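Hi! If you just cloned this repository, the fastest way to understand the data is to look at a raw example. We've pasted two of them here, unedited. The first protein comes first, obviously.
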Amino acid sequence: MRNIGYLIFISICLITGCESDDNGVEEPQAQPTIFQGRVLYSDTNEPVSNASFFIVGRESVLFAGDITIEFNDVMLDTASQGEFDITFNADPEIDYFFVGVDFFDEQNPGLIIGGSDFANGMVCGPVGCDDFVPGNEYTDLTIVVPRPETN
């Protein structure tokens, strides 16, 4: 009889010791995301320089539209040969990313080409310019952009 009481006591301790204090809800974790590739001009396939390649993380919010959560960019200069390599832990609230190119041109200061929000000839491959999901590795990306027109 004494052994049964001892077993009941041990069982109760084990059951209460295994209780979770998070109510079964798992907190979202930052997701490692990698973007690697190059940006080329569509007319010559030459690497883009004097520009910035950027990544914008957005959250889709019901009745409010999409909200920017995160912004990452890298300078594309002559030394980079149009190549980019960005690795970061994406905010867990991000639903998708879109990418773009911001040119630094004296004739067209601040000219931006990017994502589906800009219908101006930018092409991304093998993934669409606004089809990037957090937590993935996007390597060997090719972003093709039209050359900025001079005024």
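Ok, and the second one:
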Amino acid sequence: MGYVHDTAMAQYIPPNLAHCVTGTWTDIAGQVAGTIARHKAAAAETTTINIPIIIPSNSAALKGSQLVSVEVDYEVLVAAATSVTLSIVKVVRGLDTAVAVVSAPAGAQTLLPATTAANVEQHRDKFTLTTPAWIDNDEYYFLKIIAVCAATTQLDILGAVANFTLRL
């Protein structure tokens, strides 16, 4: 029997798994032929997009997946957003009759939220955890995007990629 310790694992997460709050969202063909996107219609509003991080977890310590970072591909169309801010959310599942516990692990976004991340352009932004996290089977993570949009700003979410270490 072998042992796997791969520090360069990546998992694509399609845009149709995104949970989009506020705004009018539709699944469309992407701006580039052969791609798909989750599209937000133009409106002056703050919208939240939650992208679940779908990678293996494990009940044993230091096994399964160690989440390092999440990259998201998106496009700002027509008019720049005021800001596009990334963060990671950790949810520890509650036991029977107990509520879940939500926290925001520390980390850093590659692009500047109020400038480069918000410009009219195709973007590939990344949120890197300060301390990579081994995912226990009693918790789950998602990438949270908060976009403050002007009246004519449109957004296309093209997908995300979770970068992690796999240990089995």
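That's it. A detail worth noticing about the second one: The CA atoms of residues 79 and 153 lie 5 Å apart.
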